[in-house]
Amino acid sequence: MRLTIRPMKSCARQLNLPQCLVIAIAVFGLLALLVWQQQPGRNSPNGKTITESETSPATKPVLAPAAKVDPRKQLQDSAFNDLLVEGLSPQRQTDIIGNLLIDYWITQRSLPTGTQQEIYEALAGKNRREVVYAPREHPVFTDKGFQAKGDDSSIVLHVRSSREGTFDLIHTGPDLLLFTEDDQVRAFRQGS
User: CA neighbours within 13 Å on the CB side: how many for 35?
Assistant: First the structure.
């Protein structure tokens, strides 16, 4: 058995032109009718407007949950922005701050010292080379220390030797209090 495929003749060859136009208009009309029926607020045959709730009362639109806005996108570029990622471990939080302070030491050959406010001023560009590591208004700069959110644990800098680049970062732990048993202390040394 042989199968022969023959090319189809066009509509114009099998039918005359007016017949092709009638078929095309009919197909177009059916498509327009289908599109019209899918629109909410369309008119019914009796002239009354049909709303979506009348056609499907049990169906309610399902809204997607609002996408979380990344707070880092609204901030000037800074390594401190990484602290704003939710779910970071204390180890990762102190890594971020420790690495930034080591970069500070490499550039300045000293560490920022003084009160929290003086440390933040130094990181915001009030240092001998006027390098800005984060804007002064950065949300992680709080009175309690470096803090991702207001109700989060804070991290406090304790400089052992500004000249040698050695310092501790103290993570307050779950009780949010400094110098308690749940604090986590990490020692950093320039080059470590």
Answer: 6
Query: Which residue in 78, 129, 80, 132 sits closest to 107, CA to CA?
Result: 129
Mean pLDDT of 23-46: 67
The pair of structure tokens assigned to 147 is 């803090």
19 and 85 in a common domain: no
Q: Which residues, in sequence order, are bridge partners of residue 66? A: none
146 forms beta bridges with 141, 155
Q: How many domains does the chain have?
A: 2
Task: Find out whether 108 and 128 touch, Cβ atoms under 8 Å.
Answer: yes
Question: In this structure, what token pair is assigned to residue 95?
Answer: 């890594």
Contacts of 43 (CB under 8 A, 6+ apart): 49, 50
Domain around 106: 76-189
pTM of the predicted model as reported, rounded to 2 decimal places: 0.61
Quote the Cα angle for 146-108-117, to 5°: 30
Q: Strand pairing partners for 145?
A: 142
For residues 39 and 95, membership in a common domain is answered with: no
Q: Check whether residue 112 and residue 38 sit in a common domain.
A: no
The pLDDT, as a whole number, for residue 118 is: 95
Same domain for 31 and 81, yes or no, is no
Residues 163, 22: Cα–Cα separation, whole Å? 91
